[in-house]
Design a protein that fits this description.
By secondary structure, the protein is an alpha/beta fold. The chain is about 45% helix and about 10% strand. This is Pre-mRNA-splicing factor.
Length: about 1400
């Protein structure tokens, strides 16, 4: 497993409970054994909750580690929730809220378990709401309860939660507006709100007293919470100042969450504006305190959402022009009011232009002319609140009201302007700014001032803005981490008295350099002040570098980003004086980083000026110096030049370190630029997809059955193997042969389907969940046709599918072939790649004018999909693979742009030679095969007339076979066919079809030459490649990263496509899923997409996000695939797996809905025979401490376990001794440190011994997703605590990689008691010893079928090691004896 970031995980990791905490003498562990973790638990006693749980927690300050221990002990699941009642104590309520908060903080499932007892939740939620507004509730408890409510409003995908939250933000909260006039004006402005307001009033008036009390509470709750929040900001209690600040920060988070989702924003936004919440926050003592940076940043985020450019009631995003017009209308109202009522003092304001009075300072100077009473009157006239309930201690004075007027009327930046101003290249200020560094030390105890990716977005622009902010933060975090690592290794020190910097260490990612030489500064572009570009040269000294490090530096490619640093170093004495411990200093302070500049590589030259290309073998020849040409960041260069003119030091004089990053991690700039460009463009999503993408409306609205452009006929070609397969594929549907076809006919099949307009309309009123026409059986009309003869050569025979698809796979194929959104959930081994391949094939043949974009997360997955596509009947001319990784394709053809162009030109030669041969057979003189143009002329003048003469003969009456043979003009051309074209016994109709096939073959020859002709005319390689992409290729494949990096280039070429098929969609972040949808320019006001097919599995690993704050708090690891599933979009759940033995699939099939096994698992011998030498097909082996130690951590976050490493290698050696092929064995582990240790053991024990060799793969679980092997040995590593394996998605991946045998080494007590893993481990340990049981006297492969044969237990690591040693010794003596015998025979 790739570990998350190193800086903030440590503290959280240390807080996690160990095995000793959960099973030892810990107070809570003992209580758990007493009340639920025992066969005969003590009866639940409500009073015990306070004495044995609440009081110790309160005494401990509700410390996170104590709460985490209780959560791990299943306190919520086993005791609190099952025993909750409406009369439960407040302590019971608070403890439930605490446990839910811990689960949310740990990113664990919450509502799935809560919903098992749905009747418990409404009273619990109401109790929490009452306690939050009860001022008698202690402040720390209110903080925890508020966190619970924040969690609830982030979980609106749960119907249980949504039902309780919705009334709190309904239109009834407008009862709390400042006046009836303000409310009526709002209702008049938005007529659609009047109906909702009247309905709310009627519901209240017709309710009984108890219901009225409930409705009254619902509409007052948020209002009371806001008033309480205002009081806290203005009247903090000294002894609780920290708790109050935390509460206020969390409350701003709640308001931001409400504002950032349309269902909660619709009515809340106007209430917040009416209450001047932003004004109150900005003028509060908490805001003005210099120490409260997070509070101010949270205010800025709330400000952004309250003023977001959207219509709150229609949900339509406002363009920049519409936003400007609305702002101007507000200013016009202000001017009219000023002129009418304050003409003497505000005449200048009334006559000023909008640009002037839209400036804060200018407007404030005008308002200053008014007296205090006049400011109050102006607010009244503008409809602004001037009074609050008496309990509000905040002073509503002149300053407050002036600020309220200014906030309402000042010109605000749009989100597009905000995004455009943020640089994508870092400097020392942006990389180490406090708001970013705060995210680095996130521990889950408070909010962060970053946007969240949740269930819904306000607009596409809002989604892109959030994604840009978060992706930029994540990229800067990774850069900061890499720079810190390099500087730590360089160890810079400031020397006295010379005050020079000396580096005492070495980093292979960094070089010491001198000042860069500026080569060229291009003049600014029109309308800009910064230079168009700045070219510089950096001298690199390789003298002290090893050969491999030189090679790494020589691998720098154009556009790679490098970093230039001015590092002064820090004197240890200064650090002591300033009391700056290393833990409190950021990277810049710790190492004395004065300047940081980013640059892009142009080229790398040797000392003689010759270009060095990556991998061209010039490193040794080129000597020890290099000249690196780079483009400096022009924005920063302009600032540096201005600073130099102002008398400040030259930043480039002190540059002394150059740092590079690994190539795969250094593509942040083009990706950020792609997202930034999309935020500036008003991306019009396809109308059919927009609401579903944003999370509103009917989740099934984009399904093919709901769309009007569903085709009447779909040709399924080779999807079905025969009629019986067709019938089995549509259970519950009646198949009717169309006129002209008969039941039992052979494929291919064309199915007639009813369009959305022809579907029966649902009743106008029906209950939720009621089926439409449930008793009416759907019928499908089926017709068939005969595939045309394409010619007499083997290459003319169309390739076809041979997989017998299951009914759910067929539904997935049908859905993907139709227009709309298709979401395919593919558990391990269920053939989702085969399904995606067949969808692509069907689209290719059904819609020849359409183009399909194929996207995958990794090159490996893309190549697997591409290899399967090439095996189907798809012309390779129409296939194109973009990006790196194409070289790994296991095909004979090169599908890259250059490879395809070369293939076209090679085919041109071959086809023109065929033209010459055809011309010779027809006796046509001339150089017809000189070019595509001459070939086309030959086709028009000779071939088509010859065929026309033949057709004329056919049209004459009394046609006989002999006449047909004689008149066929191409006998001689087809004389080299493997078999005679017209074999004996052909009927007249069959002979005609054979002749037609021959002409089709010739026609294809000229069609291909016509396609090649543009490549003949285009002279440059670039032009040919661009033509290939934009005109010729019909299936274009690339990774999601390549699409993000090259989006602008691809869009500028005019690339157009109709369909997107995405593999591994659950492993791709939302924005990287979105970008491939927007690689083309809009047509007709929207993106011209007709289909989006997402294949993935959200029960396996999610996208990898390194920073824990962005992963857990901001939910950056969310994929669009997973969000659509959360929203309830229709999914096709593949339900039969054919990868693993049925017994192994049981380890993970409980995670999926009705996942069964394909029949082949019962028929193929490899699934029926036992694993040679093992009693069990899978087994968990408990590994105790080895040499007195379990897990170890030689360096931070580099976790190893020597005992498990030795055991895993011993099992591998044992299997090899029994004859198992090495290529069928994979060793997996969950940590990089353990992978390194196992590799060391393998190198020592196996690598150089031919008897063993190395396994097919040794890698981490995360890296092996999407892969499989026959036998897997898995090391879980951890012995103190579960760690990140508590994420069941990762364990699902780990347990589903093996086909025939899985052997897991780990510490039983660590994983067995984990609630999330309990089901998997109960199955893993079911009826088995936790000691490895081997069967002696067997070699691989075995024909043993029974699973119950007695085995020999291996007691521990030493026992297994000794056994393998004895086997190896015996095997060696045996082989030596055989060698001696062979020599004697010779």
């Amino acid at each position: 497993m790739e570990k998350p970031d190193k800086t903030m995980v440590g503290a959280v990791e240390e807080a996690r409970p160990t095995v000793a905490d959960l099973h030892g003498d810990n107070l809570f562990a003992q209580a758990a054994k007493k009340y639920w973790l025992t066969e005969k638990p003590v009866r639940f006693k409500p009073e015990a909750l306070k004495a044995e749980f609440y009081d110790p927690l309160e005494k401990d300050g509700f410390r996170f580690r104590s709460l985490l221990i209780l959560e791990n002990l299943q306190f919520l699941e086993k005791l609190l929730w099952p025993n909750f009642t409406e009369t439960a104590s407040n302590y019971h309520v608070v403890l439930i809220a605490l446990m839910v908060n811990v689960k949310r903080r740990e990113n664990l499932k919450i509502w799935e378990y809560i919903s098992l007892l749905p009747d418990h939740f409404p009273p619990l939620f109401r109790r929490i709401l009452f306690m939050t507004i009860d001022r008698g509730t202690p402040q720390p408890i209110r903080n925890h309860l508020l966190t619970f409510i924040v969690t609830a409003f982030q979980s609106l995908d749960s119907g249980l939660v949504r039902k309780e939250c919705a009334p709190l933000v309904s239109i009834s909260i407008w009862n709390n507006l400042s006046s009836e006039e303000v409310r009526n004006a709002r209702l008049a402005k938005y007529p659609q709100t009047k109906k909702a307001w009247r309905a709310a009033g009627k519901r209240f008036d017709s309710a009984d007293d108890s219901t009225k009390d409930r409705l009254r509470f619902d509409r007052l709750w948020l209002f009371e919470m806001i008033l309480d929040f205002l009081n806290m900001m203005y009247k903090p209690l000294d002894q609780q100042e920290g708790d109050i600040l935390n509460y206020c920060e969390r409350f701003i988070e709640l308001l931001t969450d409400l504002e950032s989702q349309m269902p909660t924003r619709r009515y809340v936004n106007f209430l917040l504006k009416d209450l001047h919440v932003l004004t109150a926050i900005k003028l509060s003592p908490l805001y003005t305190s210099s120490e409260n940076g997070l509070f101010r940043d949270l205010y800025a985020l709330l400000f952004h959402y309250i003023n977001f450019s959207i219509d709150d009631h229609t949900g339509l995003q406002l363009s920049q022009e519409e936003s400007r017009q609305i702002h101007n209308a507000d200013l016009a109202k202000l001017q009219r009011t000023a002129f009418k009522h304050f003409k003497d003092k505000l005449t200048i304001l009334a006559l000023a232009n909008y640009g002037s009075i839209g400036q804060r300072d200018e407007l404030a100077s005008h308002i200053a002319e008014l007296g205090d009473g006049e400011v109050v009157e102006l607010c009244h006239l503008l409809g602004l609140r001037t009074e609050y309930p008496q309990k509000v201690v905040m002073s509503v004075d002149r300053a407050f009201l002036t600020e309220a007027i200014l906030l309402c009327h000042e010109k605000r930046k749009t989100f597009q302007e905000q995004a455009k101003e943020l640089p994508v290249l870092p400097n020392q200020d942006t990389l180490f700014e406090s708001s970013l560094l705060r995210n680095e030390y996130y521990d889950g105890s408070g909010p962060l001032a970053i946007p969240k990716l949740n269930l819904q977005y306000l607009t596409v622009g809002d989604f892109l803005w959030r994604s840009f902010i978060l992706y930029r933060c994540e990229a800067f975090f990774a850069i900061r981490r890499d720079i810190e690592d390099s500087l730590h290794r360089l160890a810079p020190k400031l020397l006295h008295p010379s005050m020079t910097t000396q580096f005492h260490g070495f980093s292979k990612m960094a070089l010491l350099i001198t000042r860069p030489s500026i080569l060229e500064t291009a003049p600014p572009k029109v309308g800009e002040e910064k230079p168009a570009y700045v070219r510089a040269e950096i001298s690199l000294d390789y003298a002290r570098l090893s050969e491999d490090v030189r090679r790494d530096w020589d691998s720098l490619r154009p556009d790679d980003v490098v970093f230039l640093l001015a590092v002064k170093g820090v004197d240890e004495g200064d650090r002591v004086i300033t009391n700056g411990s290393p833990d409190k200093l950021n990277t810049a302070e710790k190492f004395g980083v004065k300047y940081l500049r980013a640059a892009e590589v142009i080229q790398l030259l040797d000392q003689d000026g010759r270009l060095i290309k990556a991998g061209d073998g010039q490193a040794r020849r080129a000597g020890g110096r290099r000249r690196l040409h780079v483009r400096l960041d022009p924005e920063m260069y302009k600032i540096d030049a201005d600073d130099l003119k102002a008398g400040k030091p030259d930043a480039y004089d002190s540059i002394n370190v150059l740092i590079r990053r690994k190539g795969r991690e250094n593509n942040f700039k083009p990706v950020l630029e792609s997202i930034q460009e999309l935020t500036q463009a008003d991306v019009p999503m396809p109308i059919w997809l927009q609401e579903v993408f944003l999370g509103y409306g009917d989740p099934a609205g984009a399904h093919y059955s709901k769309l009007p452009n569903q085709p009447r006929l779909v040709d399924f070609r080779d999807t079905f193997l025969d009629w019986q397969h067709l019938v089995e594929s549509f259970p519950g549907k009646k198949l009717k042969p169309k006129e002209g076809s008969q039941e039992g006919c052979d494929p291919p099949y064309v199915i007639s389907q009813k369009t959305a307009a022809e579907q029966p309309k649902p009743a106008r009123k029906r209950r939720r969940g009621q089926e439409d026409n449930p008793d009416k059986e759907e019928s499908l009309e089926v017709s068939t046709y005969k595939l045309p003869n394409m010619g007499p050569y083997p290459i003319d025979v169309p390739r076809s599918n041979h997989i017998k698809f299951t009914p759910t796979q067929v539904e997935a194929i049908r859905s993907g072939t139709n227009p709309g959104l298709t979401v395919i959930v593919g558990p391990p081994g269920t053939g989702k790649t085969d399904v995606a391949t067949q969808i692509i094939s069907n689209l290719y043949h059904n819609f020849p004018a359409q183009r399909t974009l194929l996207i995958a997360h990794s090159n490996q997955a893309l190549n697997q999909l591409f290899e399967k596509i090439t095996a189907l009947d798809i012309d390779e001319r129409h296939l194109l693979r973009l990006g790196h990784g194409e070289e790994e394709l296991k095909t004979d053809t090169n599908y890259s742009k250059q490879g395809r162009v070369e293939s076209f030109m090679d085919n041109r030669v071959k086809l023109l030679a065929e033209v010459d041969r055809l011309a010779a057979t027809l006796g046509a003189p001339g150089a017809h095969g000189d070019s595509c143009e001459t070939a086309d002329y030959f086709n028009l003048v000779y071939v088509k007339p010859a065929w026309a003469r033949y057709q004329k003969v056919l049209s004459e009456g009394g046609l006989a076979l002999e006449k047909l043979y004689d008149s066929f003009p191409f006998h001689q051309y087809f004389s080299n066919a493997p078999k005679p074209m017209f074999s004996q016994g052909l009927s007249l109709e069959e002979a005609i079809e054979v002749a037609e096939g021959g002409y089709r073959h010739i026609g294809k020859l000229f069609t291909e030459l016509e396609d090649i002709r543009p490549f003949e005319l285009l002279k440059t390689s670039r032009d040919r490649q661009n033509y290939l992409l934009t005109k010729e290729a019909r299936i274009v494949a690339m990774t999601s990263t390549h699409a993000a990096m090259k989006r602008a280039d691809i869009a500028k070429l005019g690339f157009e496509y109709d369909n997107v098929v995405m593999e591994e969609a659950a492993q791709i972040t939302e924005v990287e899923t979105f970008i491939p949808l927007a690689l083309q320019s809009p047509r007709g006001g929207e993106l011209p997409l007709q289909r989006v097919v997402l294949c993935g599995d959200h029960y396996q690993n999610s996208p990898i996000v390194q920073n824990i704050a962005f992963r857990q708090y901001a939910n950056l690891e969310q994929s669009l695939f997973a969000r659509l599933v959360r929203l309830g979009a229709p999914t096709v759940n593949l339900d039969q797996q054919g990868r693993a033995r049925a017994s192994i699939s049981r380890l993970y099939n409980w995670r999926y809905r009705e996942l069964g096994n394909l029949p082949l698992l019962e028929s193929q011998p490899e699934y029926q025979t036992a694993n040679a030498g093992f009693r069990h097909e899978f087994q968990f082996i408990n590994v105790k401490d080895y040499k007195g130690q379990g897990e170890s951590e030689p360096t931070p976050h580099f976790i190893q376990n020597l005992g498990e490493a030795e055991y895993a290698v011993a099992i591998y050696q044992y299997m090899r001794l029994l004859g198992y092929p090495a290529e069928k064995i994979t060793i997996l582990t969950t940590y990089l440190g353990q992978r390194s240790l196992i590799r060391d053991v393998l190198n020592r024990r196996c690598a150089k011994i031919s008897l063993f060799g190395m396994p097919a793969s040794l890698t981490t679980v995360d890296k092996y997703q999407g892969e499989q092997n026959d036998y897997v040995i898995l090391s879980l590593v951890r012995t103190n605590r579960v760690g990140y394996l508590r994420d069941i998605r990762r364990m699902t991946v780990a347990l589903s990689r093996a086909r025939l045998g899985l052997y897991v080494v780990g510490r039983r007590e660590v994983f067995e008691s984990c609630y999330e893993l309990s089901e998997a481990f109960s199955r893993l340990l079911e009826n088995k010893s936790d000691k490895l049981e081997i069967v002696t006297g067997e070699m691989w492969p075995t024909d043993r079928r029974e699973k119950t044969k007695e085995g020999t237990e291996m007691e521990n690591v030493e026992h297994m090691g000794q056994y393998v040693y004895e086997m190896t010794k015996t095997r060696g003596e045996h082989e030596a004896g055989q060698a001696v015998a062979a020599s004697l025979v010779q």
